[in-house]
Amino acid sequence: MGFWGGGKTLKIADLEQGPMDLWRRLRDMYRNARVRRKVAEHVEGSDLFYKLGIEITSACNYRCPFCPQSKSARPEAYMSFSSVSLIVEQLVALRYAGEISLSVTNEPFCHPRCLEFAGLISKKLPKCNLRFNSNGSLIDKIILDGLHGISTPFIAQINDYTGGRELSRLGGLLSGYDAEFQSRFILKRRSFGERLSTRGGAAQSRRRRDYFGDFDCLLPYFRMDIGTDGSVILCCADYRYQMAFGNIHTAALKDIWNSEEFRELRRTLFRGKRRSVSLCSRCDMAAPGLPQWLTGSSSA
């Protein structure tokens, strides 16, 4: 069974997956095909990323089976305040107004200075959108009070894997705040049995892709991810920082983004040569969450 996407025929190898899981993959392939013409106009990549992921810590207090953290947790590392300040100052100079996430493959609130980082970003980059992806277990009234004092718009997606216990607890805590603040929290009841992406082959529950053949990926066209040591890595699926294009301590963010090495990587993925990139050859993610500048809409 084949599907056309990114100039290649894509074969679904595992048809035993659930209908919603299959739909998600077909949707992502369709999105890729739908914007290829627009991407062709930007084949060298945008001058600046639209989304930024900063892994402020490698730590996580959960071991979800679909996450690389479950069986191959990395040594705990914590980004320093000076490193975050360096990133923020460069973003200020670039007049950056996109999204900043303080989580990549980690639990952001494991970092004791997470709220300080959020406050710094709020003060220096008031036009940015701040994002937290969290399991919610470490969020208490102290953290909520700190988040309530942030002026920058933010979204906190809480993924509850406790059968609803965390949602009930957080719902009770949030009831003491105004409706606008409550609306910034997306509370989702999740399951350890969910079938997510392979995370570049690092996910313990799924090391192999569901479909084979080369196809393109647009993620490096609009998103940059920075590891705890300051490395600018391939993407959010680069769990062990295998592909670094530079480091914030030795090069400017814009120079790294526009480096020939990073541009060549984008060209390779745009041409559907995923198999020629070791990490990408084991990944089945097709750049979900396309940015407005690429799609021309706010609902992509």
Task: Describe it.
The protein has 300 residues and is α/β, with parallel strands linked by helices. It has one domain: TIM Barrel. The chain is built from 10 helices and 11 strands. The chain is globular, with a radius of gyration of 19 Å. It starts with a strand and ends in a 5-residue tail after the last helix. An 8-stranded mixed sheet has the order 7-6-5-4-3-9-10-11.
Overall geometry comes to: globular
Cα-to-Cα separation, first versus last residue = 27 Å
Helix content: 25-40%
CATH domain fold name = TIM Barrel
Overall CATH architecture: Alpha-Beta Barrel
| Largest beta-sheet characterization | 8 strands, mixed
Strand content: 15-25%
How many alpha or pi helices? 10
Which oligomerization state do the chains in this entry correspond to? single chain
Radius of gyration from CA coordinates: 19 Å
Query: How many structural domains in the coordinates?
Result: 1
